[in-house]
């Protein structure tokens, strides 16, 4: 492989949403290692701050990947953080143009699309690193390390619960563009494909059978309170509603990073406009295109004898993951704040590992930044090895598709 350690990795950012901006934070702080040479997004307002931050001229800002390719600009890699429906097409285009790809999950929307990307990565010799953050997170790495400790004995079963918090559910999967019909994939696939990957990382991927069970839908017209209005800003019971868009965006100022002000518009004016006119101001029970389920579970039976269950629960008060790993000699359980170990032998004292400190850190306790560092290092050093290449990430994608059938 070619050693690039003598120069910076030239990167284009494609799709300038929240996730891409987080990954670019690493590049911004390590300009001796990499440089952003182009921005791609159809929304020019998204480019303004990033363009200034990376000192890019207008001719380095493009409304489409086609325009970037046509410019002839030389690149080594790109970060793709567009809406999911474009991941497959843009990743193939980038690979065949000779670029490595850091790709936000999921890879594609069908099994064949995901296999296309793996095949193209192999054929072009370019790496596709899928942003499966759990493999880079200190808490989940500790769970993996403990599960491999001979003292625990072999794994018998795993139960892993992803609790999708109320705010994320309403913003992303009910009002937002990931509300299944529009995205052509399930919430479980979009949100939990990397949870499935984490479980496979613990157990191995010798899956013998897959079963899936889906719960009822909460967010339907029939479940709306009698006095509910079509928009939260017009609703007389809005202050009592746990899904109030007025409370989420205007009062608490949460989940607003993806909203942009028009020229001369204050933030308050912009948020009021969003509540009045955009999809994000709607009552959660009056989003007719939405068909989000509130709960799904996947049960995996492995040839090794391990049984694994991955559960997604939407609209919960909590917004964390819970994992219970039953081993021959101990039970390992964690809730993203603590990991507790209880031994079968009563003479063994229980253990607790404190991970509250990760709650106070940005970027998923630094995991977002480690993904980018590993990706850039793999290109500079020429070995093209990361923890979550497309080839490794394929198994979890396929299992999610099987769970839909």
Structure commentary:
By secondary structure, the protein is of the alpha/beta class. It has 3 domains: 9-133 and 367-395, 3-Layer(aba) Sandwich (Rossmann fold), CATH 3.40.50.720; 138-166 and 182-213 and 296-358, Dihydrodipicolinate Reductase, domain 2; 221-281, no CATH class. 36% of the residues lie in helices and 21% in strands. The protein has an 8-stranded mixed sheet. Strands 3-2-1-4-5-6 form a 6-stranded parallel sheet, sandwiched between helices. Helix 4 links the parallel strand 4 (77-80) and strand 5 (100-103). Helix 8 (187-203) crosses helix 14. The chain is globular, with a radius of gyration of 22 Å. The chain starts with 8 loop residues before the first strand and ends with a helix. The mean pLDDT is 94.
List the helices and strands and how they pair.
Elements: E1 9-14, H1 18-29, E2 34-40, H2 44-53, E3 61-62, H3 65-71, E4 77-80, H4 87-96, E5 100-103, H5 111-124, E6 128-130, H6 138-147, E7 155-165, H7 166-175, H8 187-203, E8 207-214, H9 245-251, H10 267-277, E9 295-302, E10 307-316, E11 321-327, E12 330-334, E13 338-343, E14 351-354, H11 356-359, H12 362-365, H13 367-381, H14 390-404
Percentage of residues in DSSP E strands: 15-25%
Describe the sheet with the most strands.
8 strands, mixed
Separate helix tally: 14
Order of helices and strands: EHEHEHEHEHEHEHHEHHEEEEEEHHHH
CATH class of the largest domain equals Alpha Beta
Give a short synopsis of this structure.
This protein has helices at residues 18-29, 44-53, 65-71, 87-96, 111-124, 138-147, 166-175, 187-203, 245-251, 267-277, 356-359, 362-365, 367-381, 390-404; strands at residues 9-14, 34-40, 61-62, 77-80, 100-103, 128-130, 155-165, 207-214, 295-302, 307-316, 321-327, 330-334, 338-343, 351-354. It has 14 helices and 14 strands.
